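User: Can you write out an input/output pair for a complex, sequences first and structure second?

Assistant: Here is one pair. Inputs:
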Amino acid sequence: MDKKTLYDSFTQIELDTDTTLHQISKIKKEVETLVEENATLRIENQHLRDRLSDLEKLQRSDEEVVEPEMSKSRLNLEKLYEDGFHVCNVFYGSRRVNDEPCAFCLDVIYGERR
Ligand SMILES: [Zn+2]
């Protein structure tokens, strides 16, 4: 291999590597977006389930005693929180950077009234 060919090869490899790196960061961003979107949907799903179960309870409030279903809801939110996502209304569904604790989230999960 002469020197020019060698040099050209390196230049080509450098360009290819740049392109690949660019693609990797693009895909990484897309994955992050999807992961956060998924967390948001899980939280919204939980809230809708809570709402539905509230409505169902209202409908049969005369017949049955209210069971502690909220604890299941809290457990689901707690799991999401432990997976590294905000479940609070402030940062809703976004990732907790470096697992930073969030007082709003803790209030949602462990607060007195829900
Ligand atoms: Zn939070």
